[in-house]
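pipeline stage [seq->struct] | target=PARP-type domain-containing protein | organism=Mucor lusitanicus CBS 277.49 | residues=110
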Amino acid sequence: GALRLGVETDIGGNVRLTWRHWLCTTPKVLANMREAMSEPEEIQGFDAIREEDQDRIRQAWADGELPEDEKKDEGEEEGAQGDHEEKEEEEKPESSPKSKDAELPKTADK
């Protein structure tokens, strides 16, 4: 399955979770993650994803952008066509994130 990144945003007490393809992760998203956390292992769910996906995240974290070889494969990843944002879920304010814009990884299969 394709690696996904969940972006949790709290706007006026309304928490919103939006999923995007890993290949749609921009340098700005990575910069926001690095500002909120000191290392990629702090990302919620990081230890639950495949080792090769952990390595992909670590590399992008270190470089501040996705590697060129991943950018070239963008159209080849399963489900990479179409909108960058896949699905939104509304959550209750009681489950507010630890940081204003917490980033969450997800893989389609485990």
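stage status: PASS
auto-comment: DSSP finds three helices and four strands in the chain. Residues 77-84, 90-102 have pLDDT under 50 and may be disordered.
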